[in-house]
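With this grant's support, we have settled on a layout for protein records. An illustrative entry appears below exactly as we store it:
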Amino acid sequence: MANQKQKPSAPGKTQKQTPKLKLWIAGARLRTLPLAVAPVLLGACSPLAVQQFKPVLFWLALAVALLLQVGVNYANDYSDGIRGTDEVRVGPLRLTGSKAVPAALVKRAALSCFAAAAIAGLVIVLITQLWWLIAVGAACILAAWFYTGGKRPYGYAGLGELAVFIFFGLVATEGTSYIQEGVFDQTSFVFGVAAGCFAVAVLLVNNLRDINQDKLVGKRTLSTRIGAGWTKALFVLNLWVPLAIAVLVSVFYSPAIYGLGAFFLVGPATLILFQAKTPRDLITVLKLSSYASLAFALLELLAFSIQ
């Protein structure tokens, strides 16, 4: 009888572990992952069109982008948490700020993601023999950490939008294309601008949601500097520029007009933004904007797959 009572203990342990797993998944901020996937998909468009697409390099580039995105999310969680800037929040739960997970573990998770991204990047270097990519990878990791980390994080100086435009736009898109084609091309550049604009839009609406709380804790994001009105205007500009790029590219390659399909997410995001009354409404805008980047990239990838 005693042995029969002890058998159910294993399921009990699983139930206790499940909430922790949910916390880690929440800390990874899955709604931001499309911003890592989109530039890699867009970077594959030109190689597909010229029949230079290399699946192994594509998947490695995607791994690097996703690991960096999750890593920067954990790094931001850790750095904001130990600074106390996450103590007054209106958004989703933060691992460090809520004290749900020890800060040291969150930091370890961030560094582990960066290390895994570095390994995937080194494999790309070994395959392509492009040794200068090591410096690019190092710059990406440093930018990810010092966004909110270090003594003078640039994210607290209103430079976050510029950084995501460069790294989650131009670098990720052109990088994915270059390792396959061996050249920098105009299509990848303009698609890098599109990916960067989507990333900037998502960061803007995220900071708009937190604008009052950031002011209280002295976090000087671009939104706290220019105010809610200009933040909304800048958000709309960045959200709609990719659609204009789809039209521009379609002049030279007509199937690129498929990218306009992202309008069905961009339009609602814009309308909700100007009608938003609660932080929850802005979270909906953030999700729609992130999904719009992925939809845009998938549609363009489909367009450039047509031979």
In short: The radius of gyration is 21 Å. Residues 55-83 form the longest helix (29 residues). Residues 1-18 have pLDDT under 50 and may be disordered. DSSP finds 13 helices and no strands in the chain.
